[in-house]
TrEMBL record:
The keyword Protein biosynthesis does not apply. Signal peptide: none annotated. Gene3D superfamilies: alpha/beta hydrolase (3.40.50.1820). Its EC number is 3.1.1.3. This is Lipase family protein, sll1969 homolog. PANTHER family: SLL1969 PROTEIN (PTHR37946:SF1). It comes from uncultured Leptolyngbya sp. One of its GO terms (molecular function) is triacylglycerol lipase activity.
Length: 196
């Protein structure tokens, strides 16, 4: 897609067990408002891989898709928000990203992650080494326009308040499901406002 001169390109990073299909509604919504969106499938998407490995896939995709000095906006859904944070905070993405939006992301872990012993899922448990490392230098995110969007009715992020962050902007959307943040009118509007 060609990039709009009015907006940065937006890279969408999906969550656990998702593919780029999860973003069809959001991509259409943003395109109608002048944004160019990009996404790719994280592999594997089932929690087998450590989140650091998935974040390296973001580095590789950015390097081959965008010019070296081009600024981007990142939107990460659920686990994709943590993958994006690792890219930004640990792999140099802070130099590329201008806006960063997380959607229903377990910044402080989710109890649901105890249902799996896959390495990527274990990293999403509360107090995991991975999350503690990310949250030690969370103030790095103050260098960008950071927004956390979440719903109090999220049954995948438990407690739902795990999506709250001590920095940046927060937007609560009152939708009834985890993935509804990227398909409901309320969620779409909140995402566009965060990217504006």
């Amino acid at each position: 897609m060609n990039c709009s001169p009015l907006h940065n390109p937006v890279l969408l990073i999906h969550g656990l067990h998702d593919t780029t299909r999860i973003f069809q509604t959001l991509s259409t919504y943003l395109a109608r408002r002048g944004w160019s969106t990009y996404s790719f499938n994280l592999k594997p998407n089932n929690g087998d891989a450590p989140l650091e490995q998935l974040a390296q896939q973001v580095v590789d995709y950015v390097d081959k898709t965008f010019s070296p000095k081009e600024r981007l906006d990142l939107v990460g859904l659920s686990m994709g928000g943590l993958v994006s944070r690792y890219y930004i905070q640990q792999l140099g993405g802070i130099e590329r990203a201008q806006r960063f939006v997380t959607l229903g992301t377990p910044h402080h872990g989710t109890w649901v992650a105890y249902l799996s012993r896959r390495s990527g899922c274990m990293q999403m448990r509360p107090q995991s080494d991975f999350l503690q490392q990310l949250n030690q230098d969370v103030e790095l995110l103050e260098k960008l326009k950071f927004t956390s969007i979440w719903t109090p009715f999220d049954l995948m992020i438990v407690p739902a308040t795990s999506s709250q962050m001590p920095i940046g902007r927060e937007a609560r959307v009152w939708v009834l499901g985890h993935n509804w943040v990227v398909t409901s009118a309320l969620g779409l509007k909140a995402i566009a406002q965060a990217l504006a």
